[in-house]
Amino acid sequence: MHDPDPPPSAPATTPQPASSVKKWLGWLLVCGLLVAAAVWWVQTHNAANAQKTAAAAHAEPPPVPVVAGVVAQKDVPLYLDGLGTVQAFNTVTVRARVDGQVVKVAFTEGQDVKVDDELVEIDPAPYQAMLAQAAAKQGQDEAQLANAQVDLKRYRDLLANEGVTQQVYDTQKSLVNQLEAGIKADQALVDNAKVQLAYTTIRSPIDGRTGIRLVDQGNMVRATDATGLVVITQLRPISVIFTLREQALGKIQQQQALTPELTVLALGSNNSDVLGEGKLTVIDNQIDTTTGTIKLKATFPNTDLRLWPGQFVNARLRLSVRKAAAVVPASTVQRGPDNAAFVFVIKDDQSVEMRTVKVAQIEQGEALIDEGLHPGERIVVDGQYKLQKGSRVKPADAPATGDGSAARGPKKAKP
Fold first, then answer.
1. Residue 403, Cβ neighbours under 10 Å: how many?
2. SS3 assignment for 232-260
3. What is the DSSP letter of 400?
4. Are 195 and 170 in contact (CB under 8 A)?
5. Domain boundaries in the chain?
6. Could you tell me the pTM of the whole model?
7. What fold characterizes domain 124-199?
8. Are strands 393-397 and 64-70 parallel, antiparallel or unpaired?
């Protein structure tokens, strides 16, 4: 028997040459140097960018273009504003004072009439007859009185010679007195008939303008009718009734002690058109406790008839005039988060300051400043929405108005 073949032996490992190992070590060294260079470049680039960003952050921003103005100095009137209603100075509803048929209408609707102008005529015939009857009765009684007076004189002479008794004389004297009293009653009836006859011609009691005719010719009217014949309103002068808060009463009374006649302006619904200028005439004698307001009445000449009865107006009571006051365009006044008013004031270094101010009133686009500004200071008129405290500005002066103050309309600043 043959012995089995011996198992194959493992192949021998071939040893790597020394040059190959050095080659791999060189590649590793090169890769490490490249990675280190890349890290250094990234760090350097980031540091440079950070320096540029910091420099840009600390760089001063460019000045903001704005429109500049100057705080003006002028005399400003102070007003109290209220809502008012125009009322006719006098209003009369013309009514008949006697019964009868309307035979004549002597006016046209909307006509201006004067005192004693004829308006309506009522049939006078019944009242002429009454006057004639009363006059006839008076004449009859006067004739009887004359005869009684002659008899009384005769009896007086006979009484002296004892031709008649004292009783006869006294009786005749009493008759004369009775007839004299009757004559006076007759005269009263005649006067009353004349008055009733005069009432048949209805005349205007005031100067004014007639309204719409309420009764046509041919209708019967009575003294007890409630509607009347026509309404007449006096338009020149005319009144305005308006209300103010009760807190204003003290200021008004103080000013009246200095200036008895206070001026009142009547403005239209847009609060800019002046419809008339009048004088304060009456302050109501009590305050309305439900609304906390006081009623006032002003009288206006109304020569141009721009005020009409029943019209709603904005009434402005001029209290006084503030002399040499600081005035700025209303657009310059801003409101902060706490609702405090402030104005951007331009300083000498062309930076702005947020100056807190106290506004007394805003009138026709101008703000009257009580505190915080002085005439001549430069302020930002337009472009405020881009500004904050300390911002630098590039101002362009606003065009001046006729009174020397800065223009109120918004203007775009040139960059």
1. 10
2. EECCCCEEEEEEEEHHHHHHHHHHHHHCC
3. B
4. no
5. 64-76+324-397, 79-89+234-322, 97-122+201-233, 124-199
6. 0.69
7. Helix Hairpins (1.10.287)
8. parallel
277, 263 in Cβ contact below 8 A?
yes
User: Distance (Å, rounded) from C-alpha 192 to C-alpha 364?
Assistant: 63
What amino acid is encoded at 308 in this protein?
A: W
pLDDT at residue 17 tops 60: no
- Cβ contact 236:88 at 8 Å: no
| 74-106 pLDDT tens trace | 999 999 999 999 999 999 999 999 999 999 999
What does the alpha-carbon distance between residue 354 and residue 377 come to, in Å, rounded to a whole number?
13
Of 409, 325, 331, 322, nearest in space to 72 by CA: 325
Give the rounded distance of the alpha carbon of 187 from its chain centre: 59
State the number of CA atoms in the 13 A half-sphere of 254 facing the CB: 7
CA distance 224 to 97: 8
| CA-wise closest residue to 332 among 149, 76, 72, 102 | 72
In the three-class reduction of DSSP (H, G, I as helix; E, B as strand; rest coil), residue 128 is classed as helix
Residue with tokens 């005399």: 75
Give, in order, the Cα–Cα distances in Å from 65 to each of 353, 364, 392. 16, 27, 9
Token pair in block for residue 279: 């004088």
- Indicate the fold that domain 97-122+201-233 takes in CATH: OB fold (Dihydrolipoamide Acetyltransferase, E2P) (2.40.50)
Q: Would you call 283 helix, strand, or coil by DSSP?
A: strand
Decide if 274 contacts 264 (C-beta within 8 A): no
Q: Which CATH class is domain 79-89+234-322?
A: mainly beta
Confidence at 338, pLDDT banded by 50, 70, 90: confident
Residue type at 41 in one-letter notation? W
Looking at residue 105, the DSSP 8-state letter turns out to be E
Identify the DSSP state of 411.
-
- pLDDT tens for 252-307 read 999 999 988 999 999 998 888 999 999 999 999 999 999 999 999 999 999 999 99
64-76+324-397: what CATH class? mainly beta
- Residue labelled with tokens 């100067």: 207
Residue-wise pLDDT tens digits, 292-302: 999 999 999 99
User: Is the distance from CB of 358 to CB of 342 less than 8 angstroms?
Assistant: no
306-322 pLDDT, tens digit each: 999 999 999 999 999 99
